[in-house]
Amino acid sequence: MRAVLSLVTAVAATSELPRINLNAKSMLEGKWWAQVGDHVVHTPHAKTGLSSNVGDYYYAYGSHAALSQELQEKRVAGAGRVHIFHLPEGKDALSTALPKVSHRRDSVSALVQLSHKVVLSDAKLFPDFNLPEDYASGLSASGQQKEKQVTDSITSSALMQKLKVQLADMLLALGLTRQDQKELTELGDGSTHTRSYSNPKATANAVSFLEKEFQEMGYRTCRQTFGDQADVVAFLPGSDADSGSVTVGAHYDSRPFEGLAPGAVDNGSGATAVLEIAKAFAAAGVRPKKTIMFVCFAAEEPGLLGSAEFAKRLSSAAASSFVQDGMNASSQLVSRMCGSDSGSLAFMQAQSSAATMRRRSRHEKHEALVMDEVAWKSPNIDDSLGAVVNLESYDWATEPLKHLAGASRAANGERLKVTHSSNPFGSDHMSFLEKGMQSVLSIHGDDENYPHYHQSSDAMDQVNSELYTMIAKMNAGAAIRLAGHA
Ligand SMILES: [Zn+2]
Questions:
Q1: 263 CA to middle of ligand 1, Å?
Q2: What is the 253 CA–ligand 1 centroid distance (Å)?
Q3: Pick the CATH number of 141-483 from 3.40.630.10, 3.30.470.20, 3.30.1950.10, 2.40.110.10
Q4: Burial 32-42 (b: 16+ CB within 10 A, else e)
Q5: CATH code 3.40.630.10 region(s) in the chain
Q6: Cα angle vertex 153, ends 241, 460, to 5°?
Q7: pLDDT, mean of each 10-residue run, the chain (486 residues)
Q8: Cα 424 to the center of its chain, rounded Å
Q9: How far is the CA of 409 from the centre of ligand 1 (A)?
Q10: How far is the CA of 266 from the centre of ligand 1 (A)?
Q11: CA of 89 to the centre of ligand 1 (A)
Q12: Ligand 1 center to residue 412 CA distance, Å?
């Protein structure tokens, strides 16, 4: 019996949806079709054993390597990193869960039911993000001026210098000075240059480095600890902290887990951008309405652990548990994000009144800008298109999406092409989205093809300073637009 069953499976696995060229789709009268990259798949013949009902098919985005054995067997079409699966019993009938709590190439997006005429990108380049015609930044004249001051002060040379210092394998290759060597050796574990979450000494050194950086800028900071890991958070209190917060975040850990792991693009670039944006805000004296939190997340690589801890504390459900009467919103947010153990949080919960809880959770709105791999310029993207950033999030993340695109237009003009994928997966933005908070990932435009991904060769020579600087400016401007300015 087992043999027969596996034979049936094998037959089903070899069936694929029929495909034709894009320009021939007018011949498909009476059939459903879906565009997959440069071609069209359509209603299969009964003899293939595949259902003729379009609703029996689902699609997801992600690396082929991230698909489980079960999904690979049910894959009936696809191109690049979009995959179509035949699931006549529905997606909930899958026996293995989608691998979604891991890093980019080990993850796939949520399964979405296929529909007639849907257009699926084969992901070399996602479609342009179209800024709504009636878009406005919402900032006053002085807020706009502050935004310009901030984005002007984020320079390529400062970003590159800070990134060199933050990385750990650069001292000889780049001929850095003695002072730089001293700073560099604060990272890694003294013998191997890494920020891997699994190396306790390297993690502790990275945390101290980041904390010191924020403190030198004048920020109040905290270590948000969980297990043996810690997110590093810097606070810029808002004038109307009751209205919520804006998070600017990136993970600081790197891969591979063993050996040299400089992680220049992934994610020295993101973490360093957070530092430089924070520095620009401090120098310009930004006075936001919402509280802004600059965060370097721990342990993204083993499964988005740091951002999950952060988002859990930030979500409104948690808010209503951690509120204390008589505490202003800004201090309340600090204690809820930084409370070190569940015992003290439980104490605070016991002190809260139901009325306070209701008041807070009704008004607060939290949004997050996440940067990961923001510095590699793909040679696969036609030079005439210039530099490309991809904004990845569900379409309901309207506020950060439009403000990112708007801020980029102001700071970068047409030099940065802004694309959008509405099938998010596999980075820290997911931790917020899963809690219902609007969050957008900025990532370079061809993230599937970075050849040094998770390797010891993910080093400084892979960094494109021009693309990197434009993405940092975009996120800085968007943070002011989201937070508002007093
Ligand atoms: Zn990463």
A1: 9
A2: 8
A3: 3.40.630.10
A4: bbbbbbebbbb
A5: 141-483
A6: 105
A7: 42 74 84 91 90 94 87 92 93 74 79 92 82 95 97 94 68 41 52 81 87 94 93 94 90 88 90 95 96 95 92 73 60 80 49 49 81 93 87 96 98 95 93 95 91 89 94 98 95
A8: 8
A9: 26
A10: 5
A11: 35
A12: 24
